[in-house]
Amino acid sequence: IEAQDVLRQTVTELKSHIAEKENSIAGLMERQGQLEQQVTDQQSDIVAKKSVIVDLTAERQQLEQQVTDQQSDAAAKDSSIAELTAQQQQLEETVTELKSHIAEEQSSFADLMQKQQQLDQQVA
Questions:
Q1: Exposed, middle or buried by CB within 10 Å (0-12, 13-18, 19+), for 42?
Q2: CA 120 – CA 111 distance, rounded (Å)
Q3: Which of 69, 48, 90 is nearest to 56 (CA)?
Q4: Whole-number Å distance between alpha carbons of 20 and 14
Q5: pLDDT (tens place) for every residue of the chain, 124 residues total
C-alpha cells in the first residue's frame, strides 16, 4: 500500500507540475501574442514614418526648387536692372549731346538772325 501511496503522490505531483507548465506555457503564449502585436504595431508605425519622410523629402525638394527659381529670378532681375541702368546712362549721354547740339544750333540760328538783320538794315 505504501508503494501505491508513493505512486499516487508522485502522480499528483506530476499532474501539479504539468498544470504549472501548462499555465506557464499559456502565459508565454499570451506574452508571445503581445510581443507579436507590438512588432506589428511598430512595423505599421515604421511604414507611416517612412511615408511621412517621403512626403517631407518631396516637400523639401519642392522648396529647394522654389528657392532656386527665386534665386534665378532675382539674378535675371539684377541683370535687367543693370541693363536698364546702362541704357539710362546712354540716354542721359544722348540727351546731353542733343542739348549741346541744340545749343549750337540755337547759337548758329542766332548768328544767322543777326546777319539777316544786318543784311536787312543794309538793304534798307
A1: exposed
A2: 14
A3: 48
A4: 10
A5: 899 999 999 999 999 999 999 999 999 999 999 999 999 999 999 999 999 999 999 999 999 999 999 999 999 999 999 999 999 999 999 999 999 999 999 999 999 999 999 999 999 8
Task: Look up residue 109 and give its amino acid.
Answer: F
Cell, residue 20: 504549472
Neighbours of 28 (CB within 10 A): 10
**Cell match 546712354: residue?**
90
C-alpha cell, 109: 540760328
Cell match 507579436: residue?
36
- CB atoms < 10 A from the CB of 113, how many? 10
Grid cell for residue 40: 506589428
pTM exceeds 0.70: no
In the block, cell 506530476 appears at 14
What is the residue type of 59? E
Cell 549741346 appears where?
100
